[in-house]
Design brief:
- With about 240 residues, the chain is mainly beta.
- The protein has one domain: Jelly Rolls, CATH 2.60.120.
- It has 2 helices and 13 strands; from the N terminus they run E-E-H-H-E-E-E-E-E-E-E-E-E-E-E.
- Strands 2-4-5-12-7-10 form a 6-stranded antiparallel β-sheet, covered by helices on one side. Strands 9-8-11 form a 3-stranded antiparallel β-sheet, with no helix packed on it. A two-stranded antiparallel ribbon has the order 1-3.
- Strand 4 and strand 5 form a beta hairpin.
- The N terminus is likely disordered.
- Bound molecules: fe (ii) ion.
């Protein structure tokens, strides 16, 4: 059974192939906090991107059979300086291949901690966590994931992509799963709570669930994937058989 969140153009999986699933998604906008402890004050935002454009923040469709990468998101010149520098570094390191996970982690560590530069991508969805595309190339993609209280990802791996993310606002509850020895089952192995500023990295076959378990606070996370995430395996906690 396919997780219905996979049909949502902004959730894990990102393969809206039908007319219905390609319908524009009406995001909900919420104020971007002026600062997030322990981060520093937000940086200024260039006037060229002060107006969010929800239609451009939807992850483009990807052909599952060929893992075709559909570039999308914003051009470098449209982005605030810290994000532009980040992507210039990634573009320079790409050299036609995928980027090492350690590089993604370091780039997120070195990124300016301001939150206002992320305002154009700071959009939520009442139905599920929202994946807002910032930039996608043949080598990597960057998304701002916005989670309302109680929203969570499916249990998943990254099926061929490395993933690093930084907690921007709120607290991540991450549950790590492992395959039971000699069994197809997956079991929760550990759980951790990640405050703002935390950097995490997952290899392609690491299995986890990310959630906003805060009762009254939003969660925002900045993700880098390389190569771009074109598909995932989904799991049930008592059965490691992929469900899509
Ligand atoms: Fe993940």
């Amino acid at each position: 059974m396919t997780d219905p969140r996979l049909l949502h153009p902004t959730t894990h999986g990102t393969q809206p192939s039908t007319a219905a699933s390609a319908m524009p998604v009406a995001p909900s906008t919420r104020p971007v906090p002026s600062s997030v402890a322990p981060m520093s004050a937000p940086s200024s935002m260039p006037s060229s991107i002060v107006v969010p454009d929800p239609s451009r923040a939807v992850v483009p469709s990807t052909a599952r059979s060929t893992r075709e990468i559909v570039p999308g998101g914003y051009e470098l010149r449209e982005l605030p300086a810290p994000l532009r520098r980040l992507f210039e570094h990634l573009d320079a390191a790409a050299d036609g291949g995928e980027l090492p996970l350690d590089l993604l982690r370091v780039e997120l560590e070195q990124l300016d901690s301001g939150t206002q530069m992320l305002a154009p991508f700071w959009m939520f969805d009442a139905g599920t966590y929202r994946r807002n595309l910032i930039r996608r190339t043949a080598t990597y993609e960057a998304l701002l994931l916005c989670w309302l209280p109680g929203q969570r990802s499916p249990i998943h791996d990254h099926r061929g992509s490395g993933c690093a993310f930084r907690v921007i606002d709120g607290v991540v509850t991450e549950t790590i799963y492992e395959r039971a020895k000699g069994s197809e089952l997956v079991c929760a192995a550990s759980m951790r709570w990640l405050p703002p500023g935390t950097i995490c990295a997952s290899r392609e076959f690491d299995i986890h669930e990310v959630a906003n378990m805060q009762p009254q606070a939003d969660l925002v996370t900045l993700h880098l994937y390389s190569p771009p995430l074109s598909d995932v395996n989904l799991y049930r906690s008592a059965d490691s058989t992929p469900v899509s």
